[in-house]
């Protein structure tokens, strides 16, 4: 090959290589640009939709440009305001973006969010400008198919919240007219006159002047705006001249404090509630406590309505959502409203509770806790002053005492006696000599002794129940032994979760379900030790007595079937204990003799559980009474007073309720 030919060939190869390198470089640069454009576009779309999600509508204009044609109808500020009006109006929340696709300066993505009518999902597409840093905005980025001066119409058809009714269909939580008390700023005047008017309104409503001024300082308030301050269930006659009102539909609780822990109350859904539940929107009313919370879904129902795009003439262009409302369902309880009121009033504001049951069916007639709070205040918007008064009350009005576990005291002797009778270790007619007011099993008990109130001897079962003798019952429990006693207790409800819409811990025999010592075994036999049952669990456990050995579980919903546990104790044992409980009422020495004056056919057992840190000292005394109708077994009552004071007791506060039940339940 000639030298020139070789040089030409070499030049050609070098040229081709240069071209290849250049092409590769161009391709690499193009690929880099594409990747950069894609990444930038994704960041732009993500930032835009994040502003929507976080409701930062004033930031949307940072990510858009608007062409001349679109600017005829929308400025950047108008876009921000449009999104805010639409998304706020439809209650948009839980905004989520997915499936972002970028090709050059074209984009598409899927946006889903919840409205007051449910979930809505749409596919969006458009173009970028400024190297994919800006979205070329058009109205179809609000909703696809929108254009020009189209508007969005959202009409909500709220579901009617179901009511909570008692056994006789009387409302316990009802829908009705409420009155929003408020002010119109222009009527308040100015200067010292305004300050005087605000002070008068504060005194009248229970609000502070700071709370009223804060309400008046809200950004949306104009001189002629109605500024709501408080909501009440009835309109007072002596409204101050400066105070206006508006009628509205709201929730009210006719029994007020008498059933507050049972019914609970409702309130407006918070942003956190809405985040957790797609079915909620701004303005949704939800259960906050009690049955309103437990049955919120059934009571609340499902809102209906329509979400529509209209053209500039107001004609319907496209229906985005249409949902028919489903009103909430009523909840019918077994509660007797009148009995509930009688029971609550009988507690007289003292810490305690009252539970009544129809023992054959398990229907709960009364669930009252004292002291209490007004659920109407909680629902309508309680002032800080009123809330602080409740929250700082040493007697804890927000506590639910009918679902709180306590040592049941001597009422539990009826169960211990029944187990001993079943096992054959307790002979009801056997008289046992007991000397003095103190006793201990043996020297291994150290300084610990069991005490009784009355020095009586000899003692048989009836005497032990009439006088409520701790020593007799402790001796009988030790005689039957831990194995037999535990086997008997296992036939009841210990460790079980009751089928009730009320939060509570299961009843417990002891902290670990066993007896670690004879002292604990003996103490449990007369209702103390580590034994814990709440008043509902107590009245359920004791249902074996009026039902002749069958345990009947409690129920609160009228529609529930009655559930039973057969032969928790023998019928003969239930009969024996019931006869002795009648003597507790009729014998002048009986601890429930005060009830004899009622002239009712009842059996009863009182109980005192003492809480103290050191023996031979006086501690807090919780007082209990269990009583039931022996004629028809139509009703039973478990009354409880926490830290009962001298001269006060659960039995002393039970007369009105027992009388009411005897007159209305046969």
Summary of the model, kept short:
Residues 352-648 form the Penicillin-binding protein transpeptidase domain. By secondary structure, the chain is α+β, with helices and mostly antiparallel strands. The protein is built from 19 helices and 24 strands.
Explain the overall architecture.
- The protein is α+β, with helices and mostly antiparallel strands and 666 residues long.
- The protein folds into three domains: 3-149, NTF2-like, domain 1 (Nuclear Transport Factor 2, Chain: A, Roll); 181-243, Ribosomal Protein L30, Chain: A; 337-389 and 400-664, Beta-lactamase (3-Layer(aba) Sandwich).
- Helix content is 32%, strand content 23%.
- It is built from 19 helices and 24 strands.
- The strands form seven sheets. The protein has a five-stranded mixed sheet, covered by helices on one side. Strands 7, 8, 9, 10 and 15 form a five-stranded mixed sheet that branches.
- A hairpin with a 5-residue loop joins β7 (164-165) and β8 (171-183).
- The chain is elongated.
């Amino acid at each position: 090959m000639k030298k020139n030919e070789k040089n030409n060939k070499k030049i050609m190869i070098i040229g081709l290589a240069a071209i290849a390198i250049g092409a590769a470089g161009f391709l690499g640069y193009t690929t880099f640009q594409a990747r950069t454009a894609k990444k930038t576009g994704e960041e732009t779309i993500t930032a835009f939709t994040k502003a929507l999600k976080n409701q930062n509508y004033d930031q949307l204009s940072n990510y858009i440009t608007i062409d001349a044609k679109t600017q005829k109808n929308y400025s950047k500020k108008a876009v921000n305001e449009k999104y805010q009006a639409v998304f706020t109006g439809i209650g948009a929340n839980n905004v989520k973006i997915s499936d972002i696709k970028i090709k050059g300066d074209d984009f598409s993505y899927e946006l889903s969010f919840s409205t007051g009518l449910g979930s809505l999902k749409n596919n969006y597409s458009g173009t970028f400008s400024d190297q994919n840093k800006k979205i070329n905005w058009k109205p179809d980025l609000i909703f696809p198919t929108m254009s020009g001066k189209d508007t969005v119409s959202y009409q909500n058809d709220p579901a009617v919240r179901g009511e909570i009714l008692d056994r006789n269909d009387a409302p316990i939580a009802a829908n009705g007219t409420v009155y929003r008390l408020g002010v119109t700023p222009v009527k308040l005047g100015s200067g010292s006159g305004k300050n005087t008017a605000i002070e008068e309104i504060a005194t009248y409503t229970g609000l502070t002047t700071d709370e009223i001024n804060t309400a008046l300082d809200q950004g949306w308030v104009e001189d002629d705006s109605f500024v709501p301050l408080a909501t009440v269930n009835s309109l007072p006659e002596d409204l101050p001249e400066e105070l206006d009102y508006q009628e509205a539909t709201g929730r009210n609780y006719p029994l007020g404090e008498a059933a507050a822990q049972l019914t609970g109350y409702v309130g407006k859904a918070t942003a956190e509630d809405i985040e957790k539940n797609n079915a909620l929107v701004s303005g949704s009313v939800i259960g906050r406590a009690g049955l309103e919370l437990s049955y919120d879904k059934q009571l609340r129902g499902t809102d209906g309505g329509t979400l529509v795009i209209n053209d500039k003439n107001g004609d319907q262009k496209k229906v985005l959502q249409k949902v028919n409302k489903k009103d909430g369902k009523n909840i019918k309880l077994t509660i007797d409203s009148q009995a509930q009121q009688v029971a609550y009033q009988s507690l007289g504001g003292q810490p305690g509770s009252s539970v009544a049951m129809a023992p054959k069916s398990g229907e709960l007639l009364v669930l009252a806790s004292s002291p209490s709070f007004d659920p109407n205040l909680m629902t309508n918007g309680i002032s800080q002053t009123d809330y602080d008064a409740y929250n700082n009350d040493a007697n804890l009005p927000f506590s639910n005492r009918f679902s709180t576990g306590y040592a049941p005291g001597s009422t539990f002797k009826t169960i211990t006696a029944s187990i001993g009778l079943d096992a054959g270790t307790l002979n009801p007619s056997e008289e046992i000599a007991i000397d003095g007011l103190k006793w201990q099993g043996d020297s291994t008990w150290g300084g610990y002794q069991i005490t009784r109130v009355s020095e009586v001897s000899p003692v048989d079962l009836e005497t032990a129940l009439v006088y409520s003798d701790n020593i007799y019952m402790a001796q009988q429990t030790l005689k039957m032994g831990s194995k037999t006693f535990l086997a008997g207790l296992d036939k009841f409800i210990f460790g079980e979760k009751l089928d009730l819409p009320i939060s509570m811990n299961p009843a417990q025999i002891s902290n670990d379900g066993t007896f670690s010592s004879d002292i604990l075994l003996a103490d449990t036999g007369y209702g103390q030790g580590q034994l814990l049952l709440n008043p509902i669990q107590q009245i359920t456990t004791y249902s074996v007595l009026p039902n002749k050995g069958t345990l009947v579980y409690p129920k609160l919903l009228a529609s529930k079937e009655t559930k039973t546990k057969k032969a928790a104790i023998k019928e003969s044992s239930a009969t024996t204990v019931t006869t002795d409980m009648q003597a507790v009422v009729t014998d002048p020495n009986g601890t429930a003799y005060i009830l004899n004056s009622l002239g009712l056919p009842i059996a009863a057992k009182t109980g005192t559980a003492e809480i103290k840190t050191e023996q031979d000292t006086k501690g807090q005394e919780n007082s209990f009474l269990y009583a039931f109708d022996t004629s028809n077994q139509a009703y039973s009552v478990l009354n409880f007073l926490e830290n009962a004071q001298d001269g006060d007791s659960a039995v002393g506060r039970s007369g009105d309720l027992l009388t009411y039940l005897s007159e209305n339940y046969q």
